[in-house]
Write a structure and sequence with these properties.
18 strands; GMP Synthetase, Chain A, domain 3; GH3 auxin-responsive promoter family protein; alpha/beta; 36% helix; Rossmann fold; GH3; GH3_M; four-stranded mixed β-sheet; 506 residues; acid-amino acid ligase activity
Length: 506
């Protein structure tokens, strides 16, 4: 492995030096759109919206935006993707071999998103670009001599009677790894295929001493639980006692900051945290700059992006898109401004609203940060609380108590008097007494609109505290443990009442 590590590092260094200068972002994105339209012009979607005619236009982007509407998942699935499950050439040439079940936090049931061969190749291409960026981090050769542990959802895909396989996107990716990945990929396809989350993690913990892990990738909540289970099983002080070469953690799926302290607590030495934006809809961005969590956008890998301002120019008071929102290109965005992300891709997604809100951190190169979900915008009574504002208040609350709070849930619900309150459920070991008053004060300091709402329609705030085990038990009730599952930070009233009922029975 030492010789292989030297070769890998040398290959990354050479690749980084040989890479040509990237195109101007505007030109690059227009070229991506042209390629996508060209490939899909003879599909049912392409014919319906006149892709051939759009390709003849001198104003390609403007013509595309004029002819093709913006779709959310419900519209895209009902009108097009449901047909692509049965027929060829609907939104992309051919018929997908896979559909990804998105286990995200929105909607009552999983989404089913087509995964084409071109789309799989695109995600591998972005992954290769991320690996090439490691040249700038100047990691030691020991990293490249070690193995990478990817904590995915189950790679045991379900075969559908319509001729395709389905599972979560991380499981689909793992199932498509070539055999030579076995040289460095852990836990291996056999363990990755175990369908039960707890059994899979127990198998990982059992095998852990046999591995030389240098990097780990996965959603922080589940990676943290896995590492804690390994430490407990082998009676370790920290994870570096068993994996001394563990140097890199590639986070993704949710914001990392609420987990930072707990990761520090289980490590014997500092590790590099790299953020990734890898969703069922694509591998959209990744950390490419040392000392930063900002993510470089994948502008040349089969995606065309559009951006809708996350303010009165693009959304209404409930966080939903306006009928005619302002839509901007990569050359029109501003640093510090939040945008709803719109995506067209080689999976056959067209002007598709993923549901994420991003903020540009820089423009040269274009680097972003995910600030929340459109559905994580709590504004029932004008409080206008974004996920970022809530995260900030929770972090400050945890710091004040010298504790950690990884997950939380909140909803606007009506009390017995018919008045709206904010009901919070916090996953922590803190005592409940006084937390509501403290959190309320922090939120008012962070957001003036929330302060106004508290003086009017938002009558109170209540906080309940549950343990990590109670939280995972709640997720287990609905088969939401592990894999790509993300914390549902903002809940509907009905879902919150279900959680409160569960808590009352503990």
């Amino acid at each position: 492995m030492a010789i292989l590590g030297k070769l890998v590092k040398a290959g990354i260094d050479i690749t980084a030096k040989l890479q040509s200068e990237e195109e101007n972002p505007k030109i690059s994105q227009e070229n991506q759109l042209r390629d996508l339209l060209t490939q899909a012009k003879d599909t049912a979607f392409g014919k319906y919206y006149g892709f051939s005619e759009i390709l003849q236009s001198d104003q390609l982007v403007e013509s595309f935006q004029k002819e093709v509407p913006i779709f959310d998942y419900k519209q895209m699935h009902e009108l097009w993707w449901s047909k692509q499950e049965r027929f060829e050439d609907i939104t992309w040439p051919g018929k997908p071999n896979f559909f990804a079940r998105s286990s995200g936090t929105t909607g009552k049931s999983s989404k089913r998103i087509p995964i084409t061969d071109e789309f799989l190749a695109s995600m591998k291409s972005v992954g290769s670009s991320m690996i090439s960026s490691l040249h700038d981090f100047d990691f030691p050769e020991t990293l490249f001599e070690s193995e990478i542990l990817m904590l995915s959802s189950s790679a045991n895909l379900e075969k559908n009677d319509r001729g395709f396989e389905e599972g979560e996107i991380s499981g689909i990716n793992v199932s498509n790894f070539p055999d030579w990945y076995d040289i460095f990929y852990r836990p291996g396809k056999d363990i990755a295929a175990i369908p039960d989350w707890d059994e899979r993690v127990n198998a990982i913990a059992e095998q852990a001493p046999e591995w030389n892990i240098g990097a780990i990738a996965g959603i922080p909540s589940w990676v943290l639980l896995m590492l804690q289970r390994i430490i407990k099983k082998h009676n370790l002080k920290h994870i570096h006692e068993i994996w001394p070469n563990f140097q890199v953690y590639a986070s993704g799926g949710v914001a990392f900051e609420t987990y930072r302290e707990d990761f520090n607590a289980i490590c014997g030495k500092p590790i590099t945290i790299m953020d990734t934006y890898l969703a069922s809809e694509g591998f959209i961005s990744y950390t490419g700059t040392p000392g930063s969590m900002d993510m470089k956008m994948a502008l040349e890998h089969g995606y065309f992006f559009e951006f809708i301002p996350f303010d009165e120019r693009g959304i209404n008071e409930t966080g939903e898109l306006l009928d005619e929102p302002l839509v901007l290109g990569i050359d029109e965005v501003e640093v510090g401004q939040e945008y709803v992300l719109i995506l067209s891709s080689c999976a056959g997604a067209w002007r598709y609203m993923i549901g994420d809100v991003i903020r540009f951190q820089s423009l040269n190169p274009p680097q972003i940060k995910i600030t929340g979900r459109t559905k994580f915008f709590l504004n029932v009574v004008g409080s206008q609380l974004s996920e970022e504002k809530m995260d900030k208040a929770i972090l400050e609350l945890a710091e004040a108590h010298q504790s950690s709070i990884n997950e939380y849930m909140v909803a606007a619900i009506k009390n017995e008097a018919g008045e709206y309150i904010h009901q919070w459920v916090i996953v922590s070991d803190l005592k409940t007494d006084g937390l509501a008053k403290e959190l309320d004060k922090l939120l008012q300091a962070a957001n003036k609109n929330y302060a106004v709402a508290r003086s009017k329609a938002l009558k109170d705030i209540d906080v309940k505290v549950i343990s990590k085990n109670q939280y995972t038990d709640f997720l287990g009730q609905s088969n939401k443990k592990g894999g790509q599952t993300k914390t549902p930070k903002v809940m509907k009233e009905e879902k919150m009442k279900s959680l409160l009922k569960f808590i009352s029975q503990l």
